Amino acid sequence: MEEPDCPEGSVPDRGGERRTASLPLPAAFLEFLSENGLDPAVYSMAATIPRYIRLKPGMESKIAEIEAELKCALDKVLWLPGFYAIPPEIQIAGSKAYQQGKIYGIDAASGAAILALDVRPGNHVLDLCAAPGAKLCMLADTLGTTGSLTGVDVAKHRLAACRTMLQKYSLGDRTRLFVADGTLFSLLPVNSRMQRMEGSIGVEENGSIFPEWTSRRSWKDRQKTRKANANGQQHLLAASEPELIYYGKHSGLVGQCKSDVFCPSVDDEACTSGYDKVLVDAECTHDGSIKHIQKFEFWGWKSLDRRVLDAERTENLLQLQLHLLTNGFKLLKTGGSLVYSTCSLTVAQNECVVQQFLSTHPSADLQKINLADNWPCRSGGIPKTLRFDPAVSQTSGLFVAKFCKLPT
Ligand SMILES: C[S@@+](CC[C@H](N)C(=O)[O-])C[C@H]1O[C@@H](n2cnc3c(N)ncnc32)[C@H](O)[C@@H]1O
């Protein structure tokens, strides 16, 4: 395999080839781009890269109506079913089509990452960094009326936004959402596990059984939240035990014993009863998301330093990405597929993470994404990996790698 030039900590400077972007990018960010060999000119494209929407399946007959409401043409993305490009200045959040759940705002590159996962009806799917949930919704739509979807995120308030989205688009039926650290999460898909535990369903002696979902919380839960709020910890990251904040009617939980559902997987159990498909859309510096970087004009460039560039955070981020990928792979069934993606354009957060992961996981087989032959992306630094470069793809920046789990 051709090896990418992986930095230890940072990538060599390309030598001051800085162009002025139309955004007043702060010196520290320009430095970050330079250290990672990235061209700041890409951030001047925010005004020309389209915004993308995805039509909820079955809404094709409403296109003319949606065009009239948004006052723009929906330009079909030929390489990505169900996706349409609209001018970047069009805001969809205030539209009825959006509020009524006929359209989603999701970048085309994100849509491609989901297609790469090749979700099939009946699959048990895990989204290990699910919030705020655009990809989760597309996964739920793709799954249809069989299988299950498990969404995990470490940030409770962000995962709560996923729950709102799922409910808005009526996609929560087969989904369960856990606030948990994705590097430690170890719960297997419930349907898959229960099939092997036939006879034990609903016969808990000391514990309790999941009733149908209700947003009303127990007294114990409310006490916990009250305590966290009092300590100013309402956005506290996940504790060691996963917290279930939503489950759908057909997620497989209703009628199951709580202790069975919260039973962590042991040894190689996931190889036979794990997830068929895993998405690790890892936390990253978001530098490839032009529209995200643009928002710092309003949030203040100072917070960019804190949220994106802090050296210690970046170093920890590389470890976090590797650990998320490693744990996602651990929870995958033999023969299953995993997609690792980030919206960073740096080599360190993409090819280097993939290379380090492959070097310690002989059962991980990096796969060619066949559909990508028609996509406006290029090969990443490691053959078979993909890079969406905003300048070429006219999408947000995204790195995508797909792995299959081989038998050991
Ligand atoms: C790039 S965003 C994911 C975007 C999401 N897939 C979507 O399409 O909307 C990364 C997410 O990872 C979450 N995250 C960060 N550290 C995590 C961890 N240790 N375990 C699980 N999630 C984590 C963040 O809270 C954030 O919501």
Automatic annotation (TrEMBL):
Ranges that cross the membrane: none
Q: Which SUPFAM superfamilies match?
A: S-adenosyl-L-methionine-dependent methyltransferases
Q: Where is the active site?
A: C343
Q: Which domain of life is it from?
A: Eukaryota
- Looking at the record, the residues that make up the SAM-dependent MTase RsmB/NOP-type domain are 38-406
Citing just one GO molecular function, the answer is:
RNA binding
* Residues binding S-adenosyl-L-methionine: D153, D181, D281
Gene Ontology process terms (BP)? RNA methylation
Per its UniProt record, what CDD domains does this chain match? AdoMet_MTases (cd02440)
**UniProt entry keywords in alphabetical sequence:** Methyltransferase, RNA-binding, S-adenosyl-L-methionine, Transferase
UniProt lists the family membership as follows:
Belongs to the class I-like SAM-binding methyltransferase superfamily. RsmB/NOP family.
Q: Which PANTHER family match?
A: NOP2 YEAST -RELATED NOL1/NOP2/FMU SUN DOMAIN-CONTAINING (PTHR22807), SAM-DEPENDENT MTASE RSMB_NOP-TYPE DOMAIN-CONTAINING PROTEIN (PTHR22807:SF16)
Instruction: From the Swiss-Prot or TrEMBL record, give the protein name.
Output: NOL1/NOP2/sun family
Give the taxonomic lineage as stored in the record: Eukaryota, Viridiplantae, Streptophyta, Embryophyta, Tracheophyta
